[in-house]
Amino acid sequence: MGTEIRQENGFQYVEQGEGPVLLLLHGLFGALSNFTAVFEAFSVQYKVIIPLIPIYEKTHADASVEGLTAYVEEFVAFKKLERFTLLGNSLGGHIALVYALRNPAHVHAMILTGSSGLFESGMGTGFPKRSSYEYIRERVEYTFYSPKMASKELVDEVFEIVSDNFKTLRVLKIARSAQRHNMREDITSIHIPTLLIWGLNDNITPPRVAHEFHRLLAQSELFFIDKCGHAAMMEQPEVFNRYVHTFLHKHHQILAS
């Protein structure tokens, strides 16, 4: 992603394009680069904004789903955004769900992929062992269908995070908050068009989780992508973007009518 990160009023974010706003929320071990294909494809017709969620930084934002949602609320207020579509992956999807419940007037539609909020297994059977680079590599590979997606750069990023005591403790707090914060009883109150795009080979939020989201979200539609793990927008970007394009085109036409 070639766009420069903006730093304003204590927020870091990237923004490009004009038109209806598409606000992207990354996951726990995610980064802005996870959405490169989405950002480049949709900033031609939409204003695409990706805030850098302060997962690892020393910040006033509490290390919890609620605290990070409050941070997104502050960012939306700073940017004076009124109506937009939320797109969230993993923890970002969880934050999107909480935001939509708290701020229904702001959210026109929502796109979730590999979202937590009902069930997620973390990076496998346990939290990464900080002393083992090989273990980190295996856990990053576990995120994808194809082990080739776990590039050295990506493994290095995760290894750097879990080798820092402060970052590790903050990640643990947020992960535990996400696991405790089950939204099964709440999300039936969300009545906005919602697109669910799921990797058929997602080990972290398996297909049964997608089916449960689909059952609970009254206005949802669900699509699976074969040979795809937990980050569909990275592993199968062309298919992912095609589903998103169709969804956005349909629902922004409804909004404009």
Task: Characterize the structure shown.
There is one protein chain. It is globular, with a radius of gyration of 17 Å. The model has no long low-confidence stretch (mean pLDDT 90). The protein has helices at residues 36-42, 65-79, 91-102, 133-142, 152-162, 165-180, 207-216, 232-235, 237-256; strands at residues 6-8, 11-16, 21-25, 47-51, 84-89, 107-113, 194-199, 220-225. An 8-stranded mixed beta sheet has the order 1-2-4-3-5-6-7-8, with helices on both faces. The chain is built from 9 helices and 8 strands. Helix content is 41%, strand content 17%. It has a single domain, classed as Alpha/Beta hydrolase fold, catalytic domain (Rossmann fold, 3-Layer(aba) Sandwich). Helix 1 packs across helix 9 and helix 4 (133-142) packs across helix 5. A hairpin with a 2-residue loop joins strand 1 (6-8) and strand 2 (11-16). With 257 residues, the chain is of the alpha/beta class.
Ordered list of secondary-structure elements with their pairings:
Layout: E1 6-8, E2 11-16, E3 21-25, H1 36-42, E4 47-51, H2 65-79, E5 84-89, H3 91-102, E6 107-113, H4 133-142, H5 152-162, H6 165-180, E7 194-199, H7 207-216, E8 220-225, H8 232-235, H9 237-256
Describe this protein with a few key phrases:
single chain, 257 residues, alpha/beta, Rossmann fold, 17% strand, globular
CATH arch. level architecture: 3-Layer(aba) Sandwich
Q: Whole-Å distance between the termini?
A: 34 Å
- Under CATH at level 1, the class stands as Alpha Beta
Runs with pLDDT <50, length 5+?
A: none
What is the total domain count?
Answer: 1
> CATH fold name, please?
Rossmann fold
Could you give a short account of the major beta sheet? Answer: 8 strands, mixed
The percent range for strand residues is 15-25%
- Helical amount: 40-55%
> How many whole angstroms does the radius of gyration measure?
17 Å
Series of H and E elements? EEEHEHEHEHHHEHEHH
Mean pLDDT: 90
- The coarse overall form would be globular
Structural class: alpha/beta
SS elements, strand count: 8
* Helix count from the secondary structure assignment: 9
Strand order of the largest sheet: 1-2-4-3-5-6-7-8
